[in-house]
Amino acid sequence: MSATGHLRDGQRRRRPARVGVGRGLKDTFANYAFEHQEIAAYTSLIAMAERIGDTALVGPLRQSLSEEGSMAKFIAGQIVPTAARYMDLVAAGEKAKV
Question: Which of 42, 59, 78, 91 could form a cystine bridge with 65, CB 3.0-4.6 A?
Answer without folding.
Answer: 42
